[in-house]
Amino acid sequence: MLDNLTFKLGAHPINWVGEDVREHGADTTYETILDDIMKLGLTGTEMGRKYPTDEEVLKQALASRGIQLVSQWKSVLFSAPEYRESELAAYRAHVEFLSRMGSKVISTAEVGGSLHFDPRRTPNEKEVLRLDDAGWQSLAEGLNAAGSIAAEYGMKLAYHHHGGTVVESGEEIDRLMAMTDPSLVWLLYDTGHAHYGGSDPLTLLRKHYDRIAYVHLKDVRQQVLDEARAENADFVTCIRKGVFTVPGDGCLDFQPIITELLSRGYDGWAMLEGEQDPALHPPFEYALRALVHIGKLASEAGKGA
User: Fold this and answer.
1) Torsion over CA of 237, 285, 10 and 118, rounded to 10 degrees?
2) Do 46 and 69 meet the contact criterion of CB atoms below 8 Å apart?
3) What is the number of helices (H) and of strands (E) in the chain?
4) Is 209 in the same domain as 226?
5) Which residues contact 104 (CB under 8 A, 6 or more apart)?
6) How many CA atoms lie within 13 A of 89 on its CB side?
């Protein structure tokens, strides 16, 4: 089904258990998630909140199923210079853990200014606080320093542009890429967050392909997004409404995206993501349908080569 892929395909536990919406999959065990990933024939996953925190238990759980821990999200607060030292120390500890797990990329996102991730924000606030020039400069410097730490361990900082954060739109992604060292700061290309942030995913892929170290494949329900935007809903509310789904179940045309990745010989990891209520959208069933869809697209891309 997936023989034509040049890249490695895994599944993010966010298909089973929400990270931003805690009630999604609250009763799901890590054994269920990993067993499903194995049954899907996939060999990669990201760290999730239900996975064991004991490294030896985690290693055994993964190894017994032939699954690699590919990455783990790391929030950073580099836009505020006063946090730089403590944030870099935390980043090093994070890199060391992932290095021990055999991971090669670190999913990294700035949380300064975000409604839901910035620890300095209060519940009554309604908008993301965009960075000023000083904030951008501090962010870029912090990311370069963190990327240097990752490089010490033979790893790559993969910046995750993300809805509801200060690096969300195409212009913000462009600015981040322009301000950071291309040998130290790479891009985590996310199809769903690209569309959510107002970018054309294919255009973004082509523009920044040489910086892409990691891929998330996620689809968007346009009607849900339109309704949420009309209500001025925040990011987490959009998740609760079901704005995201797996490839093939939303509005995005993945054919040119898959074709582009294959034609360029992308050989890194791509992670399947849905980020929706598993009670309404059974994770194994949706993931399997997405894999069939991707497989067909890869086959069509091969025929057109």
Assistant:
1) 10
2) yes
3) 11, 11
4) no
5) 70, 154, 155, 156
6) 4
Cα–Cα distance between 188 and 80 in angstroms, integer? 22
| Torsion from C-alpha of 42, 44, 47, 49, nearest 10 degrees | 0
* Separation of CA 33 from chain center: 18
Span 114-140, mean pLDDT? Answer: 92
For residue 21, pLDDT beyond 90:
yes
| pLDDT given at position 2 | 85
Q: Reduced to 3 states, what is the DSSP secondary structure of residue 271?
A: strand
Among 118-127, 201-210, 254-263, the range scoring the smallest mean pLDDT is 118-127
Question: By the 8 A CB rule, do 159 and 109 touch?
Answer: yes
257 and 208, same structural domain? no
Largest CA-CA distance found in the chain, in angstroms, rounded: 54
Asked if pLDDT for residue 18 goes beyond 70, the answer is yes
Q: For residue 110, give the CATH number of its domain.
A: 3.20.20.150
Cα distances from 60 to residues 29, 52, 233, 281, in angstroms, run 16, 10, 41, 29
Instruction: Indicate whether 80 and 192 sit together in one domain.
Output: yes
Q: Which domain holds residue 247?
A: 1-68+218-304
Tokens 């790893």 sit on residue: 155
Strand order in the sheet with 156-160: 8-11, 269-272, 212-217, 185-190, 156-160, 105-110, 74-76
Q: How many residues does the chain have?
A: 305
pTM for this model (two decimals): 0.97
> Do 194 and 141 reside in the same domain of the chain?
yes
Q: Residue 71: phi, psi to the nearest 5?
A: -165, 180
Strand partners, 128: none
The string of pLDDT tens digits covering residues 162-211 is 999 999 999 999 999 999 999 999 999 999 999 999 999 999 999 999 99
Domain-ending residue, one of 213, 235, 252: 213
pLDDT of residue 110: 98
Percentage of residues in the chain with pLDDT exceeding 70? 99
